[in-house]
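Question: Now follow the chain.
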Amino acid sequence: MKYSNMKINKIFALLLAATLFAACSDDDNDWNNGNATVSMGQTEISVKENKGIFNVPIEVEGTQNGPIRITVEVAETGENPAMDNIHYYVTSKTILIPADATSGNIEIATVDDDDINETRTFTVTITKVEGGSIGTNAVTTVSLRDNDSAFYEKLQGKWKMEGASPYTGNFSWDVNVIGYEENEEGYNQTLYVTGMMGYAWTQATLAYNFDMTTKKVTLSFVLGTMFAENVGFTDGNFDVYLGTVNGNQMVTSGTIDGECSEDMKTITFDTSKVLYFFLAPAGSGQLSGNLWDAIGNITMTK
């Protein structure tokens, strides 16, 4: 069914391209004879492969007294190139910019597949201008980002965390996994889980990793990161840090890893390790040797 849709999209794109090309044809060739320069509007564009139709902008600078016709070519580039008419379709590789306009667009439609892959790239290059000259910026590199491996976003939301503490017994908490927006540093790298210990103000740092070879997702508690700040205990106010133990030694480096199920609905953490919540006098950054609690046999389910 997906293949049939792809063919329909291609036929539609080709029909639309033919229509636009006919509309752009000008038997009089009464092109602009002013001093106009044509350039790509952006050097780089990044979209997800399920974006659908998007535009690659072209800009005109200088004097215009007539229409300008622009022709572009697309080409594979990079380590994982995107192929024309396979990973995307170009509606028309020739556009007409009227005398009263200073910009136009190359319209491109992405192809959404079910494959998990690295980002695919291709270039759009101005190769011919009738009624003007090609500017210094004649190339746009387009990146098609995979959406099938976007487990980072799928993992966010409400979960049930369960396990056992050697001090307080079994526990069950309603927790929430949050992360960064796509344009923020930390996206596809770091997640946070709030609500542990039954308090919304706790926040554990999780390292996110997706292995392209095995197609497996790993979430890891990052030891040494702050879990809660300025918490009031009977002995004073303390900051809380994630850690574990090795014999009688407190450990605040490394991770406790959890593996996600294929349906992304269960996360099972390393049962050989216990997650400790170490205390440090508020603002000191120095562990006191005391702890809030510890938990093991940790699982998360949606």
About this structure: The longest helix spans residues 2-24. Residues 1-27 have pLDDT under 50 and may be disordered.
